Amino acid sequence: MYTMTFMDLLFRAIFLAIFVTSLYALVEAARTPAQAFPAMDKQTKGLWVGLLSLGSLLSLSATLGYGAFLVFLSLVVALIFMLDVRPAVRSITRPGDGPYGPW
């Protein structure tokens, strides 16, 4: 019988947090209009949705215990999207706001 140690639980919690972050970034990327990405000199919507989908899948598999080899790369992709791409493309969808908040 396998019992989970504290470190196992800690890593599962970290992987779950990465999964939630990746999934939220994926939903935000899917909701953003495709024209907003090239308008702000970011990559295409298809590339971001693909990368975030792969990251969500990897982090979900790590959460379920099937390996965690590239899960931190999915966190990096999600954070790049959330901190750089999302604020820039949201300025296109909401006129009157700058890329990092209202002017």
In words, what does this structure look like?
The structure is a single chain. By secondary structure, the protein is mostly helical. The chain has one domain (6-102). It contains four helices and two strands. It has helices at residues 6-31, 36-39, 45-63, 71-93; strands at residues 97-98, 101-102. It has a two-stranded antiparallel ribbon with strand order 1-2. Strand 1 and strand 2 form a beta hairpin. The chain starts with 5 loop residues before the first helix and ends with a strand. Pfam families: DUF2516. This is Membrane protein. Keywords: Membrane, Transmembrane, Transmembrane helix.
Structural class: mainly alpha
Mean pLDDT: 86
State the helix count: 4
How many domains make up the coordinates?
A: 1
What profile does the largest beta sheet have?
2 strands, antiparallel
Number of E-type strands? 2
Q: Summarize the helix and strand pattern as letters.
A: HHHHEE
Strand order of the largest sheet: 1-2
Q: Can you give the helix content as a percent range?
A: 55-70%
Query: What low-confidence regions span 5 or more consecutive residues with pLDDT below 50?
Result: none
User: N-to-C terminal Cα separation, in Å?
Assistant: 59 Å
Compute the gyration radius: what is it? 16 Å
The percentage of residues in β strands lies in under 5%
- What form results from the Cα inertia axes? elongated
Keywords: Membrane, Transmembrane, Transmembrane helix
Transmembrane segments: 53-83
Organism: Nocardiopsis ansamitocini
Protein name: Membrane protein
